[in-house]
Design brief:
By secondary structure, the protein is mainly beta. It is about 5% helix and about 55% strand. The longest helix has 8 residues, at about 50-55.
Amino acid sequence: MKIIANYSIDTQTEKPTPGSYEWWYFDAQSVDGYKIVVIFYEGNPFSKRYIRSIEKGENRSAAHYPAISISVYQNEKPIYYSFREVEPEFAEFSNEIPFGKIEECLFEGQNHQARIEYSLDLKQQLPNGDSINAQLLFSSDIQSVPNFPTDPNVSDAHVWNLVLPSCYVQGEIKIDGYQKKKIEFKGLGYHDHNTGFEPLKDSFEEWYWGRYHLKDLTLVYYLMNRGNSWEYKAWLIHKNGTVRNCRNFAISNYGLSFFGLKTGRVIEGSVDDSEIFVQLDQILDNGPFYQRFGGRMLLKSEGKVKEAKGISEYIKPSRIHQKLFRPLVNMRIIYPGKIHWVQRSPHLYRWTW
């Protein structure tokens, strides 16, 4: 995996090969217990339509399968969820500036020389009656962007752009329907951009990822099982952009999910003379091939312990292609032109969360 941190290329990439994908990921957690995760896709890697086109040998690119997912949590419980795939004419991505739009939801980045800002504008109505209207601003000093050294021996099959490992987020979120919330949002956030030129399952078997904000530091890690070997990468990124490489990682305390996913709930590592402990406490999203956790990170150094809360994820991409799990996935993803009957129910749709 090629790892960079570059605002100027947080733009659409050409992806002519079927199975390619690209996503722009944003998350934030507020000071009063709310979390939001928003992902814009060009080439939804979880789409049954995209997977079927690959299996049939159809020469259809990622541009045919744009999508957006939005999740809002209060005290580790989901209060809004959507995963919506649309036809290409309802999506737009720029290859010149950081910009993407899915129906009435969009993100746009601006470089103000000393500061980078991303605005998110979310307007969405779901078949079950839920709706969201949100405006959020992600902002960070330009000096906070880390500088990762380029490794010429790393494959470009998957590019991970850590544009804003840590940033301030403020704005407003309005949720209506089964839940009614008006949230004045203020907290810390994160933004990255992933591009892959082959199906996820061809790149790795398992992937752990997470980010945790301390006052002046952010921990970002990924632990990737390539089948015949594990790749461990993690960094403590300072507010001034300094990067410290973490090492000696281990995964333990495995648990089995309802869908048979075996995931480690404790991740340990070290950096310089400090110890790192990540505990995946609360399951925010629990599916047949994917889990999202609310977790805690402890940084122990010189007899002192600092604690941070954050978000972790686990994915096993081979399961995306297993027909056994597709009926469950179909209940969660709203596809263009066909709405699953479960998605029309205010109560049953929540069961799929």
